DNA sequence: AAAAGCACTTAGAAAAGCTAGA
DNA sequence: TCTAGCTTTTCTAAGTGCTTTT
């Protein structure tokens, strides 16, 4: 294969291009470079891959695993049994108690039944999946108890699969594929109050699959006896494989790993756009403050919405088809019922109380003092409206983004989130890093800066199930360490006293080593205390999303260089691969 | 100009993997 | 050597925003 160079050497070429650009970031250089590689929307010239890995076929249950209907054993047809196992596997989950889930599941399950099954099984409550469920639990238990050799065998098989299907060649690079396995069939689990929860996500067959690769590549063969839906050669897109999913009718893709050239470059570009916003954000802010006074309602709504997006890092809020998804909103789709106006609250004037479900049905709750003009405008927008009416009835994301495009090339609502997240990290790092701190304390400061961003972006997580217990464990470790420290100090004291009397070399040495011991234990104690603080503050906050998607990695790299923190303390292996471009590029004086 | 389609980024939960300390 | 408790990886849903169709 003539195209294949080693991935390493091509990486060097790629990253040195980026590095060069970062030092000479004029718009001419950048567009010239991009045009040279990819004229107008072309994403690649050569693409070759092995196609997707399909979900393993259904294995029928052993004869002794029974399903009961209305108290009586019933042997199910293979198709009906397969769908029944999906439900059985989820039996412990509270999903299966929800009425919508049960209704959707039962409806779709019945479609898979034979006509006899259909006439017998008419009530889900009479179905007893417990035996099946127990069987699966035993299976997973058995998997855990497997011998080392068996586990090793499975690991090797996975590695073989990864080696064979996990990589592709795009232009001159061998690149890792993100999700080369096709999603297996199962029951749809939406987030929050999703109207389609419990529906059957059907098995994807080769006949559903569109393959995308270059004409001059070796086209992956479909599994024996099957055909692809289509093979296309579209180099204006980055995906390798796609299919249409049956729940929402949306398209799913197989794409490259974040470490790939095509993703890294896009990521870098995203932060460059945010940095361009930095240069004109003051002007834009002045502009929207002016627009609060506009005589046009549409302009005022746009200006207030933009203020929220900027100040609170809200998402844009596209319209969604009603009844197809969970009822969640972003800025432009806020409804009157999602905010409360308080002329005065807790000693503050003009407070807006937000309470709505955002992406993934994560609750956004915040009380924010706003400028008087914003407050008056909101009162105006809410006049004569019902709770379920749109707050910004003259606005949508497309109007807003068109306006933003006029203010700055490439500016859209989401750029504000990236900009505010990254600038907040940079500011917080400056403010929180104490030069005299040791490394663990500096890392605590980093995590606190990261946390400020996560709070801004409302990145939440369910508190870990074992949180209380693990906090208690840590506390008892701290207590033990304190006792150990007290002991060490006592020993040091007596060693000193001893040395004073004896005045010989040996006892002097003892004092020194006891001193060292005290110091070491002090450090260990400090480390533990820092860990406890960090964990407590992090209880309900997820740092990963902002770290991965919103924070310009060059800020973190520069901070590490400046303070002599090993980059491994901030980014794990995967993250270092994703941010290889930034690690290579950023010097200690990098400014976002 | 509104709706539908498409391609891509962003998101938290769950599974899997790893490791320190019993 | 085992396993509890953590971190990392995997999974796939749910957004954004642009393009195409009606």
From TrEMBL:
<dbReference type="GO" id="GO:0003917">
    <property type="term" value="F:DNA topoisomerase type I (single strand cut, ATP-independent) activity"/>
</dbReference>
<dbReference type="GO" id="GO:0003677">
    <property type="term" value="F:DNA binding"/>
</dbReference>
<dbReference type="GO" id="GO:0006260">
    <property type="term" value="P:DNA replication"/>
</dbReference>
<dbReference type="Pfam" id="PF02919">
    <property type="entry name" value="Topoisom_I_N"/>
</dbReference>
<dbReference type="GO" id="GO:0005694">
    <property type="term" value="C:chromosome"/>
</dbReference>
<dbReference type="InterPro" id="IPR014727">
    <property type="entry name" value="TopoI_cat_a/b-sub_euk"/>
</dbReference>
<dbReference type="InterPro" id="IPR013499">
    <property type="entry name" value="TopoI_euk"/>
</dbReference>
<comment type="similarity">
    <text>Belongs to the type IB topoisomerase family.</text>
</comment>
<keyword id="KW-0539">Nucleus</keyword>
<dbReference type="GO" id="GO:0007059">
    <property type="term" value="P:chromosome segregation"/>
</dbReference>
<dbReference type="InterPro" id="IPR011010">
    <property type="entry name" value="DNA_brk_join_enz"/>
</dbReference>
<dbReference type="InterPro" id="IPR013034">
    <property type="entry name" value="DNA_topo_DNA_db_N_dom1"/>
</dbReference>
<dbReference type="GO" id="GO:0005730">
    <property type="term" value="C:nucleolus"/>
</dbReference>
<keyword id="KW-0238">DNA-binding</keyword>
<dbReference type="GO" id="GO:0006265">
    <property type="term" value="P:DNA topological change"/>
</dbReference>
<dbReference type="InterPro" id="IPR001631">
    <property type="entry name" value="TopoI"/>
</dbReference>
<dbReference type="GO" id="GO:0048511">
    <property type="term" value="P:rhythmic process"/>
</dbReference>
<dbReference type="InterPro" id="IPR048045">
    <property type="entry name" value="Topoisomer_I_DNA-bd"/>
</dbReference>
<dbReference type="InterPro" id="IPR018521">
    <property type="entry name" value="TopoIB_AS"/>
</dbReference>
<keyword id="KW-0413">Isomerase</keyword>
<dbReference type="InterPro" id="IPR013030">
    <property type="entry name" value="DNA_topo_DNA_db_N_dom2"/>
</dbReference>
<comment type="function">
    <text>Releases the supercoiling and torsional tension of DNA introduced during the DNA replication and transcription by transiently cleaving and rejoining one strand of the DNA duplex. Introduces a single-strand break via transesterification at the specific target site 5'-[CT]CCTTp site in duplex DNA. The scissile phosphodiester is attacked by the catalytic tyrosine of the enzyme, resulting in the formation of a DNA-(3'-phosphotyrosyl)-enzyme intermediate and the expulsion of a 5'-OH DNA strand. The free DNA strand then undergoes passage around the unbroken strand thus removing DNA supercoils.</text>
</comment>
<dbReference type="Pfam" id="PF14370">
    <property type="entry name" value="Topo_C_assoc"/>
</dbReference>
<keyword id="KW-0799">Topoisomerase</keyword>
<dbReference type="InterPro" id="IPR014711">
    <property type="entry name" value="TopoI_cat_a-hlx-sub_euk"/>
</dbReference>
<dbReference type="Pfam" id="PF01028">
    <property type="entry name" value="Topoisom_I"/>
</dbReference>
<dbReference type="InterPro" id="IPR025834">
    <property type="entry name" value="TopoI_C_dom"/>
</dbReference>
<feature type="domain" description="DNA topoisomerase I eukaryotic-type">
    <location>
        <begin position="187"/>
        <end position="564"/>
    </location>
</feature>
<dbReference type="InterPro" id="IPR008336">
    <property type="entry name" value="TopoI_DNA-bd_euk"/>
</dbReference>
<feature type="active site" description="O-(3'-phospho-DNA)-tyrosine intermediate">
    <location>
        <position position="550"/>
    </location>
</feature>
<feature type="coiled-coil region">
    <location>
        <begin position="137"/>
        <end position="164"/>
    </location>
</feature>
<feature type="region of interest" description="Disordered">
    <location>
        <begin position="491"/>
        <end position="512"/>
    </location>
</feature>
<keyword id="KW-0175">Coiled coil</keyword>
<dbReference type="InterPro" id="IPR013500">
    <property type="entry name" value="TopoI_cat_euk"/>
</dbReference>
<keyword id="KW-0090">Biological rhythms</keyword>
<dbReference type="InterPro" id="IPR036202">
    <property type="entry name" value="TopoI_DNA-bd_euk_N_sf"/>
</dbReference>
<dbReference type="InterPro" id="IPR051062">
    <property type="entry name" value="Topoisomerase_IB"/>
</dbReference>
<protein>
    <recommendedName>
        <fullName>DNA topoisomerase I</fullName>
        <ecNumber>5.6.2.1</ecNumber>
    </recommendedName>
</protein>
């Amino acid at each position: 294969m003539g195209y294949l160079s080693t991935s390493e050497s091509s990486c060097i070429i790629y990253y040195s291009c980026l590095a060069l650009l970062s030092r000479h970031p004029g718009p001419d250089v950048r567009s010239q470079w991009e045009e040279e590689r990819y004229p107008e929307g072309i994403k690649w010239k050569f693409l070759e891959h092995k196609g997707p890995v399909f979900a393993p076929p259904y294995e029928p249950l052993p004869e002794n695993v029974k399903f009961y209907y209305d108290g009586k054993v019933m042997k199910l047809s293979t198709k009906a049994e397969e769908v029944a196992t999906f439900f059985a596997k989820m039996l412990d989950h509270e999903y299966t108690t929800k009425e919508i889930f049960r209704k959707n599941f039962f409806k779709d399950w019945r479609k898979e039944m034979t006509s006899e099954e259909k006439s017998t099984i008419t009530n889900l409550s009479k179905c007893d999946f417990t035996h099946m469920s127990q069987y699966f639990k035993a299976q997973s238990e058995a998997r855990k108890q497997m011998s080392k050799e068996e586990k090793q065998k499975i690991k090797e098989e996975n590695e073989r699969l990864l080696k064979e299907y996990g990589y592709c060649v795009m232009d001159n690079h061998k690149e890792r594929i993100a999700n080369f396995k096709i999603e297996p069939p199962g029951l749809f689990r939406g987030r929050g109050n999703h109207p389609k929860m419990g529906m059957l996500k059907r098995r994807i067959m080769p006949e559903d699959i569109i393959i995308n690769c270059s004409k001059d590549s070796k086209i992956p063969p479909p599994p024996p006896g099957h055909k692809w839906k289509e093979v296309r050669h579209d180099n204006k897109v980055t995906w390798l494989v796609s299919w249409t999913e049956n729940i929402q009718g949306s398209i799913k893709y197989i794409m490259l790993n974040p470490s790939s050239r095509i993703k890294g470059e896009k990521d870098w570009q995203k932060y460059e756009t945010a940095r361009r916003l930095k240069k004109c954000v003051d002007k834009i802010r002045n502009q929207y403050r002016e627009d609060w006074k506009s005589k046009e309602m549409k302009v005022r709504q746009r200006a207030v919405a933009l203020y929220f997006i900027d100040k609170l890092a809200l998402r844009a809020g596209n319209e969604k088809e009603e009844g197809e998804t969970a009822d969640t909103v972003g800025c432009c789709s806020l409804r009157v019922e999602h905010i409360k106006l308080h002329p005065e609250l807790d000693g503050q004037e003009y407070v807006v109380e937000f309470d709505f479900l955002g992406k993934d049905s994560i609750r956004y709750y915040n009380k924010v003092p706003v400028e008087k003009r914003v407050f008056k405008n909101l009162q105006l927008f809410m006049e004569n409206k019902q709770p379920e009416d749109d707050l910004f009835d003259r606005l949508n994301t497309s109007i807003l983004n068109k306006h933003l495009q006029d203010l700055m090339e490439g500016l859209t609502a989401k750029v504000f989130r990236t900009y505010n997240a990254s600038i907040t990290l940079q500011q917080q790092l400056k403010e929180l890093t104490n030069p005299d701190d040791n490394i663990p304390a500096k890392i605590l400061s980093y995590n606190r800066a990261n946390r400020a961003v996560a709070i801004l972006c409302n990145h939440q997580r369910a508190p870990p199930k074992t949180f209380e217990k693990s906090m208690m464990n840590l506390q008892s470790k701290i207590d033990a360490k304190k006792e150990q420290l007290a002991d060490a100090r006592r020993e040091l004291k007596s060693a000193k006293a001893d040395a004073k009397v004896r005045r010989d070399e040996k006892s002097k040495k003892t004092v020194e080593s006891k001193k060292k011991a005290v110091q070491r234990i002090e450090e260990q104690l400090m480390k533990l205390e820092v860990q406890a603080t960090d964990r407590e503050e992090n209880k309900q906050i997820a740092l990963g999303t902002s770290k991965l998607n919103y924070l310009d990695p060059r800020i973190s790299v520069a901070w590490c260089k400046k303070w002599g923190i090993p980059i491994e303390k901030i980014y794990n292996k995967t993250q270092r691969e994703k941010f290889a471009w930034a690690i290579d590029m950023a010097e200690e004086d990098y400014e976002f």
